[in-house]
């Protein structure tokens, strides 16, 4: 589904990713781990299409299509979703209004009709309960005054609503207490199926106790330096990144 | 493509004014220039009684001695008042008993504006008075309203049919010598709307006036007078558009509101005069005086959505004369390209326990300048007066400006005044977040601006809130949403 070949990425002429290869197949869960500054967040932003980052070499293939020239929203329309490490606030726009706009934008882009209001409401309720989200929460302004846990739960709620084919979770565990972590992880697990793929980007191993990866990759200085199964994460936790 | 400031700028520049068409209706236009004879001719043309002619002449002689105000934060070439025609009327009969008599071309214009009167009549329950080139064309629903004793007609008719009411209230809230533009309007106003709600009556529908300048080389000077008698309620909306023209057109309106004891007036404006092209050529000069007088326990609420005009100079105000009276001002002003807006309010607290709320939202884009100017004045006798003001500015790009000029004058120690102000920019991170969820740049900006303006939009009557939201999108985006 996702194939990254010899990727080099710059930001403000500074080289961040320096020759990265990665292949993610349908139905798989991949974890990308690495110390601060290794290029983890850059990788997720580049896949999502943030043009603050410049791809200088290499390609990103999504379902065998080079997505280099696609805008962020076009990538979203094709089913790429990113859960933000720092979700942004949009004052005055409720969670419900935002997700409704997002869903209908995607449907229109795919040449489909907008979702009728009653169906929208039903889906919202259903997905909200999946993440133990209170209905009052849905009428609050998007991310405004949200706690760390609420922000991340809201990200996964949006993922549940948009039902992406490829979900990239960028440091979804940061800022979460243990209960919130469990809720978010169990939400992700319920959304996982044989037709989608999930890339979990994280600094710590603890999220991987709840979302069990098929593959673990270690990212260091812009390259994947080691790959393995879930045991690699445990080993890393024990020995630290210096071990590699 | 990701969103960049450059692209946003380009998009904004490409945006066209949606209502820029003219209608082929023959107009009768007075020769250009202004003197006593012109003032007399306007009055005569409208078959006005002598007291009205004299009132106009008095205003004119005062105006001649006055100078244009220069204190506002706008720069423009002052209009040549001798180069404007002060009267333009569609050349058909200006009086219609029913819509069937209205010139079909004129009706087509309204259709283009998206305010088909027929539809309005059937569907929305809104009574509309349309003022085109300063002449009132049709007032729908008049009979329905008359059952409750409500008067809703053009000001010209009111001068003829209800002279006592007009005489009693006109110029009482805004004296004819109040300021340069109010004096000019008092001398030459060609038409406008008049509304009277009798004691204890709750007006069963929204009243609405639509203004449009069509003829080139003319100014528009309409005058609105709304009187809510004791214990009554009315919600009033005005909307306006003008065709695209290279020259600057002058619009100098006066709106007076009187809320007698226990009455409430809600006055909403959606202002969409032609803002000029992307190089700042043309556009309407919108120099408007609006003020309301509150008697005991009464309430006046101004809500405005200002997206048009090249230059806006406008301060809808409340004089809180009666004890326990309430004044409110909710405003969204959007400026783009070379538009300039200097707008805000004055809340004059004279009575005891008077309250006022000011919520002002300014959105600046392009090379525009957007200023909030407000005065909160607490008089000596205004025990326990309270005010809350909030002024928020949203900037798009690096070439625009947002300014806030709050004035506070307090002469009574029991007053409580709060003032909050914020300035923010639409962030690329906000746009990217929306993009990532599949929402394009235009829609993302619309979402952010709507969210920013929400407190004001919420105060508009339902059916107009949707229109206003659309207008915000159109004003700020490359294409129509």
Question: What can you tell me about this protein's structure?
Answer:
The complex is a heterodimer of chains A (244) and B (481). With 244 residues, chain A is α/β, with parallel strands linked by helices. Chain A has a single domain, classed as Rossmann fold. Helices cover 36% and strands 29% of the residues of chain A. Chain A has eight helices and twelve strands. Chain A has a six-stranded mixed β-sheet, sandwiched between helices. Chain A has a four-stranded antiparallel β-sheet with strand order 2-1-4-5, covered by helices on one side. In chain A, helix 3 runs parallel beside helix 6 and helix 6 packs parallel to helix 7. Chain A is globular, with a radius of gyration of 18 Å. The model of chain A has no long low-confidence stretch (mean pLDDT 93). Chain B has 481 residues and is α/β, with parallel strands linked by helices. Chain B has twelve helices and 23 strands. In chain B, a hairpin with a 2-residue loop joins strand 3 and strand 4. The N terminus of chain B is likely disordered. Chain B has one domain. In chain B, the strands form three sheets. In chain B, strands 5, 6, 8, 10, 11, 13, 15, 16, 18, 20 and 22 form an eleven-stranded mixed β-sheet that branches. Chain B has a ten-stranded mixed β-sheet with strand order 4-3-7-9-12-14-17-19-21-23. Chain B has a two-stranded antiparallel sheet with strand order 1-2. The chains are: A alpha/beta (244), B alpha/beta (481). The interface between A and B is medium-sized, with 31 and 26 residues.
